[in-house]
Amino acid sequence: MSATEPSERAIQPSERGEQQAERVSQPTGSVTRVRRGELLSATMALLLAIDMFALKWFGVAGVPDPSAARPAVSTAENAWNGLTITRWVMLATILVTLGSVVLHANQRSHGTKTDTSVTVTVLGVLTGALLTYRVLISLPAPDEVIDQKLGAALGLACALGIALGGLESIREQRARQTRAVQRSKRRLAPHRPAR
């Protein structure tokens, strides 16, 4: 064998880093392939779930007191109470994103991997678009809601982070497929004997 044959080719630093990243947190005997984009999406989905219930999203004007001695009391509400329709899309996005990571973490090296990156990306973009409309353009109940709170801005950022993680997963999947095709072409190429 000559030094230029593919089997003796030196592994490039970028390939070495990707191979090490694929092996991180893998139990012995199994191969889990949870990638950077999936982890980004899952992190943003967890933060969105916390943000939905724990932080206030909208300031709500209270009903004025009939006596002039006390002004109207304003309160704040979270996303679950303030976004009656959008909350279901947000919940579906969170569940699908976290479910896809659990699915990929549990898949063994049986030769196939379920590709959920497109679904996560579409749901992330849909949630981001709905939250952009509800947080930045048209508040949920314009006669009651008087302003947006920090939770709304963080929720929008989390939804966009889910979409970004999905796009990164798609990019990683395409890069893996390209590398696999290149490796198979090198293996199938006829070896020329050394002269």
Number of helices: 6
Please tell me what the overall shape is: elongated
Strands of the widest sheet, in order across it, are 2-1-3
What is the top-level CATH class?
Answer: Mainly Alpha
Radius of gyration: 25 Å
Strand content: 5-15%
Give the total of beta strands: 3
CATH topology assignment = Butyryl-CoA Dehydrogenase, subunit A, domain 3
What is the straight-line distance between the termini?
Answer: 11 Å
CATH arch. level architecture: Up-down Bundle
Structural class: mainly alpha
Topology order in helix (H) and strand (E) letters? HHEEHHHEH
Number of domain units: 1
Helical content class: 55-70%
Folded structure, characterized:
- It is a single chain.
- The chain has 195 residues and is mainly alpha-helical.
- It contains 6 helices and 3 strands, in the order H-H-E-E-H-H-H-E-H.
- The protein has helices at 13-23, 36-54, 79-82, 86-106, 117-137, 150-188; strands at residues 58-60, 75-77, 145-148.
- Strands 2-1-3 form a 3-stranded antiparallel β-sheet.
